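In this supplementary section we document a worked example of the pipeline. Step one takes a protein sequence of length 399 as its only input; no multiple sequence alignment statistics are reported here. Step two produces a three-dimensional model, which step three serialises into structure tokens for compact storage. The input and output of this example are shown verbatim.
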Amino acid sequence: MKRLLPSCALGSSLKLWARGRLDIGWDDLLFALWAPFLPGAAPHRVWPTKTPHLAVHSVRTAWDALLAVQNWAPGSEIILSEANISDMVRIIEAHGLVPVTVPLNPRTLAVEAKAAEAAVSERTRAILVSPLFGSRMNLESIGEVARRHKLLLVEDNAQAFSDTGFQGSPEADVALFSFGLIKTRTALSGAVVFARDAGLLRALGKQIAPYPRLSTGEFYARWARAIGLHGLSQPLVFGVLWRVLQWCVIDPDVWLSQMTRGMKGANLLAAVRRRPHRATLKLLRRRLHERGNEQMKWRIQRGNASLRTLPCAVGRDANFPFFWAFLVAVNDREGLIERARQEGFDVSFRASSVACHGKVETDFSRTLERVVFLPIGNPMPECEWERLMGIVRDFCGRN
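The serialised model returned by step three reads:
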């Protein structure tokens, strides 16, 4: 009996392929349901390695604690790559420090060492680099700049976790990894910090120790949100929800973006100064001890194949891309979004909260204004992905 291949026809005008799928299975979600009642896990024993590390509430938590521990004089400067979530910049300013942005190359998604060197002043104390969209930066040259000027080099790998064998670039003094809701191997929340200086890691632990722990109610609220979002990976379910939201005069695009955001509330420092729930540590340990990641394998295969056919892809020359996100930059992004949704694909420019924070326009900031995120995280049949690629290629050709 011949195996039936998936049809490229949607079969229903209601079906809509969602912009992504959470990187977590139903077995992990079932484990999370009972995790609050299981034996505990220590924050320094979640990663399958003997390398010292510390599990915290979020990358924002680690960044805030690091700045508190360093206690640099007000007015000290921190060089950072121009694109990151706004909260990272707000935390710098909350400590009385001055962010100094350096541009990113839209083809490599990397900071040029000469740009970092040019930004150094007598007030500079650290360099924060943030690899984007599932790429990594080669930090050899920037590491030389940091060592020459005796600067702390921090690598914000919130979007760059691929496997537990990578614990940050060897040049980085501190490496941060996120396991929030939409991240690879999500634990619904949580982050892990590595530091080359064991004393610095201990100081971070002492800084965070008095913080209040997330409540069991908050943990289950995150779990319930994950259950709901995971169920939306089914195109018929997602398409029906999209139309219900429209009928209720709610913008589905904005609603989905808000549903996947990790931090809410006006008081940012109060929100980040928390400790992870014990169940989060147990789930994080379970996820990090998993072997292999099928979703990542086909995401890399599909992403590499698509790069060859899409001249408008962002980060075409990025170092070690594993395609946590896949972006294209087109002149008519509203037209592409409308056409794709008509054809049954949810594409958006709101799929990430990354923004540019420089005071002047750059090639990357202009590119970011034209990007559309494609649903590479959704395991749709190959024929459906190729149908989407045909639509995208048409708009790439209009650049």
